[in-house]
Design brief:
Among the domains are: 156 residues, Serine Threonine Protein Phosphatase 5, Tetratricopeptide repeat (Alpha Horseshoe), CATH 1.25.40; 174 residues, Gcn5-related N-acetyltransferase (GNAT) (Aminopeptidase, 3-Layer(aba) Sandwich), CATH 3.40.630.30. Helix content is 40%, strand content 19%. The strands form four sheets. Strands 16-17-18-19-20-21-23-22 form an eight-stranded mixed β-sheet, sandwiched between helices.
């Protein structure tokens, strides 16, 4: 059949349906003569389009608790296997390598989980040491100041290597401090978490039995919709969709790529050393399949794995999670962002890393184009049976993609969720900071209910444990700290503000909030200093000015009190973190919250405060009584929780006194612990501190003993009184449940 007849036959249709035709060979990108003059084409691995840097190390896709749980389970199983196979040298560290200069957060999160849950898994005997890769001197210094990394570094469980995955040099045997590493003492555990797809790859196109090699050029910014449409009309893009680090719709942030293709052969490519011999079989299988599609060979990723195996004589467990090459073939970009391009990985190619005996398992994450590959590069990989079993189980149970889908769905409906639903999502997602970050704006705007406050405090603490502070710019911790202040979760608020200040440097906002924390937890000097520093930063800030005035006013009032002396040791208990201080106006809000249950007022036979303005109304009277020495209002203040309860002492002359001015007086004591902090021993400690303080001031106050009373059915309070040293009196008033019994404690022997 002639070519003319063949073309005529192909153009014929059968009942209106055309015949299938072979795809054409790959075509070069159309370029104008002016563009051709400016273009410099390079083979794909040498083209200036790749980026090994990840500017967003804690993004939704690659940093969540499901990923950490998956790696933790695998690491735990592998550690037990190396011990069971007699490969463990307990006198030397086991190195955990976290590849990628932006993956420090993930490595530190995994180390924190080891520290927290390791003892439950029997990992105490394993000396796991984290190795992070960083070549930038500024970033190295930031890492050394990082609160988590610096802790591990000081105890010898973390090191920084001046080495990059894009480096052609072998892995160094010493860290940046010139500390020698025992790389050959134990097998190593390597994690490549979403980084190898950023490395250069060799790009080819199979056209049935023919092979074409790609060369790529950067042709500048994409500055019009027409140019993009023109680029997309070419053969290569297909249905490609790139995962951009910093998505942007601005034309100036886009770069257009041009491709040209050269017909080649496997022998020619391998023979000239452009690709390693180990890829020979892969190319031959692709050509043998008779397909027509672009393919990419992860030559640099393979070289990274080979260098690591050369550095660790006892073997390496490679765990590689990344974008997987789709079964229908690779889609190549024609437009990329300034951050560079990443291509999916042919994970099967990584099983050809070396001639050593290996075992490779690849598990695709359902519903995604992501997969995890485990490669056991040990002498006897078949003996790692437990690790192989856990790999299948962990990849099936821990579904990182599901958490990402949850994040995306929550973003669109967070405002309609109830507090109970938000709490449930936070717990279900293993206290993932990504989830809380979605809820933070709403929680800060609307607040939380008093009934759920303690639950939220617990959730926030768990989230903070899972959060890794950013080395360069920390923002999440500040918002979390603001919510902690709203909830009076002072310990968390303090940690958040200190972390922000350590990373971002001091500022008015951080110092102001630290002053609030210190004031609420009884650290008066720290509160004054922080507030003054905040004022130095922003002398005209009205909020900071008012805080300085409030703190100074409280201190002035405290200095006028006859029944309290600042600095006395007897006013605080170092073991429990509890102290007693004069009640201040800044504590009234928490006073009202902790006093909210009716049984507190009933047991005290005290004021029934139904609304906050009731408390505000009686406060001036309490303040005057304190200044006149008629009554002492002590606040029970905890170093982490802040205000947790109160003690009230009334000073009375003795009943038979003739001269009330000069006669000895007695004190009547009553106490209560807030409804959120009962059954923690605060009542006993608080009463003990009050008694010790009154003893210290008894001569000046001219008091000889303390009296108090309790309902007969209030066994908890009566037990506290006897433990502190009060003696029961025969005196009693009333009958039955309303009977009131009395106690007394002498202050002067």
């Amino acid at each position: 059949m002639t070519e003319e007849a063949r073309a005529k036959k192909l153009n014929e249709v059968f009942n209106g349906v055309g015949y299938a035709q072979l795809k054409p060979a790959p075509k070069a990108t159309f370029l104008t003569e002016q563009q051709k003059q400016k273009c410099v084409f390079n083979k794909a691995p040498e083209a200036d389009i790749w980026s090994a840097q990840d500017p967003s190390p804690q993004n939704d896709c690659w940093h969540n608790q499901a990923w950490i749980a998956l790696y933790f389970d695998l690491l735990t199983a592998w550690l037990h296997d190396i011990k069971g196979n007699n490969l463990l040298n307990q006198s030397e560290p086991i190195y955990l390598l976290c590849l990628g200069e932006a993956r420090y957060a993930f490595g530190l999160a995994l180390m924190n989980k080891l520290l927290e849950e390791g003892p439950q898994q029997g990992l105490e005997e394993f000396n796991v040491c984290l190795l992070l890769m960083e070549t930038d001197k500024t970033a190295q210094a930031q890492l050394l100041r990082h609160p988590d990394f610096s802790h591990y570094h000081q105890i010898g469980k973390a090191h920084i290597l001046d080495w990059s995955i894009s480096s052609e040099q072998p892995l160094p045997h010493q860290d940046i401090d010139e500390t020698m590493l025992a790389l050959g003492a134990n097998p190593a555990f390597m994690i490549a978490h979403g980084v190898l797809s950023k490395l250069p790859q060799a790009i080819y196109h199979t056209h049935y039995q023919d092979l074409y090699r790609a060369e790529i050029a950067n042709i500048g910014p994409s500055n019009s919709a027409a140019s993009t449409e023109e680029a997309n009309s070419q053969e290569l893009p297909l249905l490609w969709r790139m995962k951009a680090h910093s998505p942007s719709d601005k034309a100036e942030d886009k770069i257009r790529l041009a491709y040209q293709w050269f017909k080649t052969s496997i022998d020619l490519e391998v023979g000239h050393g452009d690709i390693a011999l180990l890829f020979d079989d892969i190319l031959r299988k692709e050509l043998a399949s008779g397909s027509c599609k672009p393919i990419a060979l992860p030559i640099n990723a393979v070289q990274v794995c080979m260098r690591l195996e050369q550095a660790f004589d006892k073997g390496v467990c490679h765990l590689i999670s990344d974008h997987l090459t789709p079964e229908h073939g690779l889609n190549l970009p024609t437009v990329i962002t300034q951050t560079g391009v990443e291509l999916p990985l042919d994970l099967k190619a990584l099983s050809y890393v070396s001639s050593a005996v290996t075992h490779t398992q690849i598990k695709k994450h359902e519903g995604t184009e992501m997969a995890t590959c485990m490669r056991l590069g040990h002498q006897n990989p078949a003996e790692f049976i437990y690790t192989q079993h856990i790999f299948e189980k962990a990849c099936s149970e821990h579904l990182p993609s599901c958490q990402v889908n949850i994040y995306e769905s929550l973003k669109s409906c967070s405002e309609s969720l109830t507090e109970a639903q938000m709490l449930a999502f936070a717990r279900f997602c293993k206290y993932d900071p990504n989830v809380l970050q979605i809820f933070l704006p709403q929680l800060l705007k609307q607040g939380v209910s008093v009934e759920n406050r303690i639950q939220w405090c617990g959730v926030l603490s768990q989230v903070w444990q899972n959060h890794i502070v950013a080395c360069r710019q920390e923002s999440f911790a500040f918002a979390l700290g603001l919510l902690a202040i709203d909830l009076s979760h002072w310990e968390l608020a303090k940690n958040c503000m200190l972390a922000c200040m350590e990373v971002n440097g001091p500022s008015t906002a951080y110092l102001h909030n630290l002053a609030l924390v210190a004031w609420a937890t009884g650290e008066q000097e720290v509160a004054s200093q922080s507030a003054e520093l905040a004022l130095d930063f922003s002398p005209e800030d009205a909020q900071v000015k008012q805080l300085n005035i409030d703190i100074a006013t409280y201190q002035q009032q405290t200095n006028q009190l006859s029944w309290f002396e600042k600095g006395l040791r007897c006013t605080r208990c170092e073991v429990s973190g509890l102290r007693i201080l004069p009640l201040g106006a800044h504590q009234l809000g928490e006073f009202y919250i902790q006093y909210r249950q009716d049984d507190i007022a009933e047991r005290l036979r005290g004021l029934k405060i139904d609304q906050f303005n009731h408390l505000q109304a009686v406060w001036p009277t309490w303040l005057e009584e304190g200044l006149r020495g008629e009554k002492a209002h002590f606040a029970l203040v905890h170093e982490s929780f802040g205000f947790v309860g109160a003690i009230v002492v009334d000073f009375y002359p003795l009943p038979d006194a003739i001269d009330n001015q000069n006669s000895q007086r007695h004190a009547h004591l009553s106490f209560w612990v807030g409804c959120d902090y009962q059954h923690r021993g605060f009542g006993k400690i608080g009463v003990s501190l009050a008694v010790a303080t009154l003893k210290q001031r008894s001569l000046k106050l001219n008091i000889s003993h303390i009296k108090t009373s309790a309902w007969v059915h209030n066994t908890a309070s009566r037990h506290i009184l006897t433990q502190v040293g009060f003696n029961a009196l025969e005196e009693a008033i009333g009958e039955g449940a309303e009977q009131e019994v009395f106690y007394q404690l002498a202050l002067v022997n």
